[in-house]
Amino acid sequence: MEKKDSINVKCFRFDPKKNEKPYYDTFEVPLNGTMSVQDCLTYIRENLDPSLAFFINCRLGFCKRCLVKVNGKSCLACLTEVEEDFLIEPVLKNKVIRDLWIKDL
Amino acid sequence: MVEVNKLCDREIKTDLLIVGSEGAGGHAAIEAYKSGINILVVTKGKIGKCGASQMAGADFNVDGLAGKELGFKGDKRDSPELFFETLVREGLYLGNQKMVEKYVEYAPKVMKDLMDWGMRIFRYDSAHSEEMARGILSSGLLWVGAIRKKIKELKIPVLEDTMLIDLLISDGRIAGAVAVDITSGETILIKCKGLILATGGWHRAYPFNTGPEDLTGDGIAIAYRAGLEVVSMEMVQFCPMTLVWPPKDRGSIILYMISEADPFNKVIRLLNSEGERFMEKYDPENLEQSTKEIVSIASELEIEEGRGSPHDGIYFSLKEVRKSFIDMIIKVGTHQIKNEMKDSRYELLTLLPELLEKSKTEDIEVGNASHYMGGGIKVNEKTETSLPGLFAAGECSGGLWGAVRVASACTEAGVQGKISGEIAPNYVKNVEHAQINMKQVEEILERINKPLIRSEGISPNDLQKKMHEVSGKALGLIKHNSLLEEAVKNLNLLLEDDIERLCVTSTKSRQLNYEWLRSIELRNMLTCLFLSASASLIRKESRGEFYHKDYSFTDHDNWLKIIVMRCIDGDLDVKFEKPVVTKISLPKGKLTSQEAIRVATASLKRE
Fold it and tell me: Residue B522: which H helix or E strand, with range?
């Protein structure tokens, strides 16, 4: 299968103080070399929507605070490789502070 | 105790505030706890999950005799005096010898603490390439895990996900600090009698670095803004063989970590884009096993001269190694890591086998990433700064190493953390809380609020790109006069103009506001870069890890001096100081930087 030049990232958005219920935004992210879920989120925040809240720190699986759900499965954003469109959500939707950042991460 | 304050959202009062919770700050807290004073730890992330300590290899150093006393094999040919000599000589004589003495003296005490707190140790060996076995190998996660466990056990209060903004000073001594709760966006006024900064380096100011996201030079920039002296800001260590590509693996030092270990040390080839084993030119005798600084400088010169890889690296090659041998290394290595070391690090268990597999068919792009900051807040051997009540420990302090970080930075963090935890309570016990100058608080809040209030200006993302352009171009491993001049000018402009136009647009809420927090961090990162660029421009020689293309000599006659910087009325003031000498007198003469490194490391060959 040919590698895609860009993928669509469907992203859970929710600000409990502003929004009545969660909604989803879709962002187009160019793929340049092997990228992780976190590389995509960083691209979105630095180029498309700086208001996207998610956790990033060590980028290499040490701190384990970037836990998210990708296509329904829990994983660390920094270690999860992506090649196709994906859906990203917080691991616990009832604990959201904003978007993908939840309490007690 | 929490009170309502009309300027800040929250107010807290403690005796000793410790900023940073890991290798240095965590150790300081546990030590200071023994004194019975009130302590509060404030940390930018979660304890055990932030800063650089968690990512360390992690090797610790003690002299061979101390190693024996700690119950390891040790090395009876060694002594604290020999270890001291190695550190001063290999640091090319710029290190503060009083601080080096403390490093040697406290290194075994720190090891003992960590072992008592349950840090598991993999093995005892030479972790750096010293002639003596002085290394104790554990992992960053085991290290911070032990500290975290002890802090929880002692119930030391920790305020997590909280970022230090600025110091408060009254009557010429520390009075407190202003901080921000990252998740709520609330501002916090913290009143204290003493304060230990253990905030790490400014790695994220560089586009290619090995640090985590939270290392933005906060403590150093905050101290500089408060009028404190910073030293040796030109001394930035770059780690060779760091992965540059692809994005997912960028910044990992796993190949460097294994490069000194058997059997890799015998089979690794570093190649340029023409397929040449370029170390043959720079160090024909030791080749890839030359010192870290010579390998870094050689690979960077190849890149500068146009023989680099597509993503500004060089190639790490195992192509001459038989595939069956690589399979064997993967199998044996994985078994050792899993079953003997019982280590589950992603870098060792997943990334390394992936890279080795890949190396059968292609070479891997690696380069020099900013890795360790030798410069920082000026302290003495007791971790005291020039401001009464303010202490600094670990990477945010400066002056220990001189021109090369010769031995373990983990040990440095522990040593200075432990010392500050001993010393600070003595100070705290003898003073009352200073009166907070509310005007200072008001000014700080007004400054950090501006980007939220502005309706137009430059975005933090755009300023970050500009900053990385400057640091990427001029503040890499190899320095050039013309590029440094331009960088100093540009950084000055970014600090004076762009910073004052920063505008947070995506959301005005303070809660988890990336743009707002980044706008605060950008001021800190730009300050550190400005100081580093200015010091680099001043030092007209090359020494150890500091390599200046226009002045490739190590000039003992004119440059055995420390560059000390501070801020007076908003302007940079520079002075020079002689390195603090206790036992080893300073050499004379002028040598090429490579000769100087070779002379300094002449006794490195192990029997």
Answer: helix B514-538
Residue B212 to residue A59, Cβ atoms within 8 A: yes
At residue B602, the pLDDT reads 61
Within-domain flag for A1: no
Query: What is the C-alpha separation between B423 and B415, in angstroms, rounded?
Result: 12
**CB-based contact, A19 to chain B, within 8 Å:** no
Q: What is the pLDDT of residue B103?
A: 98
Residue numbers of the domain that contains B269: 237-370
pLDDT in tens, chain A (105 residues): 678 899 999 999 999 999 999 999 999 999 999 999 999 999 999 999 999 999 999 999 999 999 999 999 999 999 999 999 999 999 999 999 999 999 988
Look at residue B230 in the predicted model and tell me its pLDDT. Answer: 98
Residue B301 within any structural domain of the chain:
yes
Q: Within 13 Å of residue B452, how many CA atoms lie on the same side as its CB?
A: 17
Calpha distance B115→B33 (Å, rounded): 18
Q: Does B512 touch chain A (CB under 8 A)?
A: yes
As a whole number of angstroms, the distance between CA B553 and CA B568 comes to 32
* Bridge partner list, B547: B478
User: Number of structural domains, chain A?
Assistant: 1
Q: Considering only alpha carbons, which residue of chain B is nearest residue A65?
A: B49
Identify which of A41, A50, A49 has the alpha carbon closest to the alpha carbon of residue A78: A41
CB contact under 8 A, B506 and A49: yes
b or e along B127-137 (b: 16 or more beta carbons within 10 Å of the residue's beta carbon)? bbbbbbbbbbb
Residue B246 is nearest to which of A15, A33, A105, comparing CB atoms?
A33
Q: Compute the C-alpha angle B10/B12/B18, nearest 5°.
A: 120
User: Strands (DSSP E) along B433-561, which ranges?
Assistant: 478-479, 547-548, 553-555
B179 assigned to some structural domain:
no
Q: Which domain holds residue A45?
A: 6-102
Looking at the DSSP bridge assignments, the partners of residue A6 are A30
Query: Whole-angstrom Cα distance, residue B586 to residue B558?
Result: 12
Cα–Cα distances in angstroms (integers) from residue B565 to residues B95, B225, B370, B375, B543, in the given order: 17, 11, 21, 11, 19
A60 touches chain B (CB under 8 A): yes
Tell me whether B170 touches chain A (CB under 8 Å): no
Q: Does A72 touch chain B (CB under 8 A)?
A: no
- pLDDT tens for A55-74 read 999 999 999 999 999 999 99
Residue B297 lies in a domain: yes
How close B582 gets to chain A, by Cα (Å)?
39
Nearest to B247 among A33, A50, A65 (CB): A33
Task: Please indicate, yes or no, if residue B308 is contained in any of the structural domains.
Answer: yes
Cβ atoms of B61 and B408 closer than 8 Å: yes
CATH value at residue A18? 3.10.20.30
A76 inside domain: yes
What is the DSSP code string of A7-67? EEEEEEE--TTT-SS-EEEEEEEE--SSEEHHHHHHHIIIII-TT-----S-SSSSS---E
Number of domains in chain B: 1
- Which residues does chain B have with pLDDT short of 70? 1-5, 126-132, 602-607
